[in-house]
Amino acid sequence: MENEMGSPDFEPTRRGLLAGAATATSFAAAGPAGAQGAGGSAAAAPAAGVPVLSKVSLMVNGQRRELELDTRTTLLDALREHLQLTGSKKGCDHGQCGACTVMVDGQRVLSCLTLAVMHEGDEVKTIEGLGQPDSLHPMQAAFVKHDGYQCGYCTPGQICSSVAMLEEIKAGVPSHVTADLTAAPQLTADEIRERMSGNICRCGAYSNIVDAITEVAGRQA
After folding, report:
1. Which of 37, 109, 171, 218 would be a feasible disulfide site paired with 104, CB 3.0-4.6 Å?
2. Where does the record locate the signal sequence feature (predicted)?
3. Using one digit for the tens of pLDDT, what is the confidence trace for 47-66?
4. What is the pTM for the complete model shown?
5. What topology does CATH give the domain 133-221?
6. Is the dihedral of CA 65, 69, 71, 76 positive or negative?
């Protein structure tokens, strides 16, 4: 039977649509295979789940370290799991607590959020590189003096962050609470709290941390 336009009536059914879709899919799948057979084999994709390894060279605490890592390895895991520098802590693993803070080329970095392969040739300093028990960095000594810690889990990140933070102030880098952006930032308690706000202390030793940083800054002034 024909309709008014002279064409046969067409009433699609669910079964017919599914059959047509299956046929189209089979042709699409056969297309690349046919081209591959005619023009040579295509490059094989990496097998799912197989890690891609890459060599990376880091200057860690003054020593050149050569590593071959899964490209997905964070700087934190490279330090802790491959170089056994366990001072830097894995707290939230989301860049929210600051326990993993290290210094890369003098700037503080959340090592859980950056990949190790991104830092080829960079100079990385961890809490172990700042000082040792028999030769403490002034900031480490000030934290001890002012009891700037309780459980100590966040302390390596707090100290690395505070050392780099003082360098930021020296360089004239303003913060959210800097009143005059045209003048050199002043080291006030508000400036310290704002600049250290990315480092969480669950024990609540914040006032003592501010005292420790203030003392070290006074020596350096």
Report:
1. 109
2. none
3. 777 899 999 999 999 999 99
4. 0.77
5. DNA polymerase; domain 1 (1.10.150)
6. negative
